[in-house]
Design brief:
Strand order of the largest sheet: 1-2-3-9-4-7
Distance between the termini: 14 Å
Strand content: 25-35%
Number of helices: 5
Oligomer: single chain
Length: 206
């Protein structure tokens, strides 16, 4: 299932790049299309993900915030990895495809209503780690969640508030961090300019 999901994500990403669709408008539509493809009703998927039917309906119509933790629950309920929802130009030269990621070919995932954009810096998610560049807009908040593995990162620009198991840390440009991903964690931008953060996560989370 994982291999099929990754392959489908690549094919979807290529088709979205060709149609020049707004990445933020795509996630809800992808959830709806995948749900219908799996012949699940709104009620069935909402129940499996532990959210209300009304909330799921709003997510599918891009009318409500979609925190990372909720997308993870929906991904699990739909039987795909979160990389399904990455969009971007996947047309890299064959000799570069599994080694190099050009800046104009990064796969992107925009979390609807959150003001957070993730760019995949790793060429793929087949290895033992993933490298991400997060852009967190002023006031944006990821919400709290946890998952298997470990992660570390460094703040490239701006400020970042990071919570790990209820402890809050204010990070400035150049500050770095590391923690077990099984800890409940959350990040937010308390500043007035976008924060850019490079994350290393192992094993790959998306």
């Amino acid at each position: 299932m994982a291999i099929r999901s990754m392959r489908a994500a690549d094919e979807w990403a290529a088709s979205q790049a060709e149609s020049n669709m707004d990445p933020e408008a795509v996630v809800g539509g992808q959830i709806r299309e995948l749900r219908k493809m799996k012949k699940l009703t709104l009620t069935q998927l909402a129940h499996a993900a532990g959210i209300s039917v009304g909330y799921l309906s709003q997510i599918e119509r891009n009318q409500s915030k979609l925190p990372i933790g909720v997308l993870k629950k929906l991904s699990d309920a739909l039987g795909v990895h979160m990389n399904w929802f990455f969009n971007g130009n996947m047309q890299a030269p064959s000799e570069e495809r599994n080694i190099i990621v050009r800046k104009d070919r990064r796969r992107r995932l925009t979390f609807t209503g959150l003001g957070i954009v993730e760019e995949l810096l790793s060429p793929n998610l087949a290895g033992p780690l993933e490298l991400l560049l997060s852009t967190v807009e002023p006031g944006a908040d990821s919400g709290e969640y946890s998952h298997d593995g470990n992660e570390a990162g460094i703040v490239i620009t701006g400020q970042l508030d990071l919570w790990v198991d209820g402890r809050r840390f204010r990070l400035e440009e150049g500050d770095s961090f590391s923690f077990a991903s099984t800890s409940r964690h959350r990040c937010a931008n308390p500043g007035k300019v976008p924060a850019k953060v490079v994350w290393v996560i192992t094993p790959p989370h998306y």
